[in-house]
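FW: tagging you since you asked about this chain on Friday. Here's the raw sequence from the shared folder, copied in full. Didn't touch anything.
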Amino acid sequence: MSMVTNWPGARNASIPPVFPLIVALVGAIMVSLLTFPFGGWRFVIATVIGVCAGFALYHASFGFTAAWRRIVTERRGQGLRAQMLLLLLACLLTFPLIAHGPPLADWGFRSGAWVLPFGVTAMVGSFVFGIGMQLGGGCGSGTLFTVGGGSSRMVITLGAFIAGSLIGTWHLPAWAGLPKMQAFSFVREFGAIGALLTIFAICGTIWLVSRRIELSNHGSLEPRKTTGSLLSGPWSPLMGAVALALVSVATILTLGRPWGVTSGFALWGAKIASGLGVDVVSWPYWSGGRANVLERSVFANSTSIMNFGIIFGAMAAASLAGKFSPVLRIGWKNIATAIIGGLLMGYGARLAYGCNIGAYLGGIVSGSAHGWLWGLFAFAGSSFMALMKPRFGL
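HL: got it, structure written out here
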């Protein structure tokens, strides 16, 4: 996934590299100061984790969207194999935490998992999200780090993502009651060791199949990307996978739950709508415990502050790489696909427990079967749209 997309006739803004770096540093510090009254040092640490995530996502170009598209349209699997490495590394660390609790728990370290049922609603939501990924040009994490990296088009995608998330919270009760399977935890059923062996088997199979596909179509594997400078990049997919695995574990230890992204978008949309006079509080989704979340500052929401951190971390990375150069003119076709893709991702995420981070990565590192099922249907939707885009001239 490219950080800044250039279209014919587009003009790039000329911005001194030091300016976005200063903005990123000041922004991260301000978020830390604003969130401290609500969550203390735990929220400050969460902000720092978000900054590190954005930095790693940008320098490693670690996008789920491009990896899924390339294995389908180009028969190249390096990105998909990097994802499997990320999952393996993260599960290697999270499964023992979930099964036995974190070391030094008395010091405030936490552990938690999302083990959720998967049914028709989540199936539709994840498939729709996959379609939106290819139209919008990013995923949950991809949208945030490309916005931070200076992509003007992805700002449009993010706005539509937020709107789609809000609409999803409005419509969600209509999807209630559809058939679903019981939640299944590999860790609970097989123990930490058995669950790890299962995940190794699944990821290993996907790794080998993607490798075989690439070799049979190209005769050799794509040259491995190497890591350049730690600060200015680029990073190899291997380094990106290691960094994001550590982000996943650090989030669980700090916040007591897996890394998530899109619930923050739903909150932002609800606050904007409420400010415009929409009676969001009366919606079932925002009643009960979520009403309190809606009434409080966004800086009291741990998902939101990590999202802000990702944006500022990616902005700092783009500045250090000398690549922060927003496009000031965007064609109507790119605007249209950004809006449609963002709306679909936002809506699908609310139906399916989240995005590629909260539902897919978060579910798998929790040992939950719903993470793998989410990935299966999202990949199907992504593949469908990746193959259809050329037919529509996209």
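FW: The first strand starts at residue 118 and ends at 119.
HL: agreed, and Residues 136 and 341 are 4 Å apart (CA to CA).
FW: great, closing this out.
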